[in-house]
Amino acid sequence: MTNISTTTLTMKREFNVQPERVFDAWLNPLMMKKWFFTLEGTNKVAQNDARVGGTWEIVDHRGGKDYRAVGEYLEIDPPNKIVFTFKMPQFSELQDIITVELKETSAGCEMTFTQLIHVEEEENWTAADLEKALGEYHDGSEHGWNLMFMGLKELVETGSISYKG
User: Fold this and answer.
1) What would the pLDDT profile of 31-88 be if each residue is shown by its tens digit?
2) Which sequence ranges are marked TM in the entry (predicted)?
3) pLDDT tens, residue by residue, 12-37
4) Which end of the chain is more exposed for a tag (fewer CB within 10 A), N or C?
């Protein structure tokens, strides 16, 4: 039996728009395909069934390969909270849990993003190996989300994303 360890990534972002606008960007396929694990120019699939128990799927084409991300919605509370699973089946069957919480501020809204990252331990790992792997998954995820959240901010505040990936 394989051991699974977890690490938690938490990030906060401010947006100069109402929470509803950011909430929509997480659930509207036309908006998702511009920033969520993909860019409009490389997106092949952006679809979802935005209800509890419904699923979502993104397919991005990069470097001659298709990358597929899928999940299921566990909680949808407009415009305050979305909880969903996330996995990329070509890399792992493990599912992460992502929680997005939005709250109104005087300038717009604040988003708190939390990802519970699951890491499969290799057979001969020491505690140091595990710590290193958890750190790499955490930092790699944080780097990826940083880039996505820049796109998300531009999308919700200006209506488009100007850079090309």
Assistant:
1) 999 999 999 999 999 999 999 999 999 999 999 999 999 999 999 999 999 999 999 9
2) none
3) 999 999 999 999 999 999 999 999 99
4) N
Is pTM beyond 0.85? Reply is yes
How far apart are the C-alpha atoms of 125 and 8, rounded to whole Å?
Answer: 20
Are 16 and 157 a contacting pair, CB within 8 Å? yes
Domain range enclosing 151: 4-158
15 backbone dihedrals φ, ψ, rounded to 5° = -130, 140
- Which strands, in side-by-side order, build the sheet including 109-120? 4-15, 109-120, 96-104, 81-86, 65-77, 55-62, 43-48
79 touches 56 (CB < 8 A)? no
Could you tell me the CATH number of the domain that includes residue 107? 3.30.530.20
Residue with tokens 């089946």: 89
Q: How far is CA 12 from the centre of its chain?
A: 13
Residue 163 in domain: no
Q: Which of 115, 133, 116, 136 is nearest to 124 (CA)?
A: 133
Spatial contact of 99 and 82, defined as CB atoms under 8 Å apart: yes
Which residue blocks in 73-126 are alpha helix, DSSP H?
none
